Amino acid sequence: AQRVTQPEKLLSVFKGAPVELKCNYSYSGSPELFWYVQYSRQRLQLLLRHISRESIKGFTADLNKGETSFHLKKPFAQEEDSAMYYCALVLSGGYNKLIFGAGTRLAVHP
Amino acid sequence: DTEVTQTPKHLVMGMTNKKSLKCEQHMGHRAMYWYKQKAKKPPELMFVYSYEKLSINESVPSRFSPECPNSSLLNLHLHALQPEDSALYLCASSQALGYGYTFGSGTRLTVV
Q: Does the CB of A3 have a partner CB in chain B at under 8 Å?
């Protein structure tokens, strides 16, 4: 079955510390993976998509097909990074159906 | 215009009421979606529209009725809801595979 797993509900770090939010997926097809962020009282925003291999707000994520992972990393966390982060997988087959992991709340302390 | 606009932002309705949620985008996206998000939970897919036709209904109860009048608009008609239907209802649109979704800010629905 198709599934996205984010094992940590909460990740708490201090400002300036490295951050890694874990994401594993289960999908028989070719995965299209994304990271979405939801800041307090704001809409869900696309942060990264794996096909673009970009860095947004200092965050990067690399697709590892061998380990079926798409972990989100940032070398130095900032307080404004505190938010809910969702890893998401698109199920293809013509419908572009997006399913989300349970989410990880990142709390960056001063 | 690079946004998905949802109205109203907040809605309180009784269990016998009929109401509608509205979603609008002018990005030329041909796929539109309704999601339901309960507190501290990820969004759950309800419906998918592709080229104004319903493609996916995730076994949503019939008290939720989607409608796509044109390529820019998506409605969700609500009737005889239950208190457990109280949630944030999110609309999204997408251009194509691999581009991700653009989400609206949602309608926070309370059923009393």
A: no
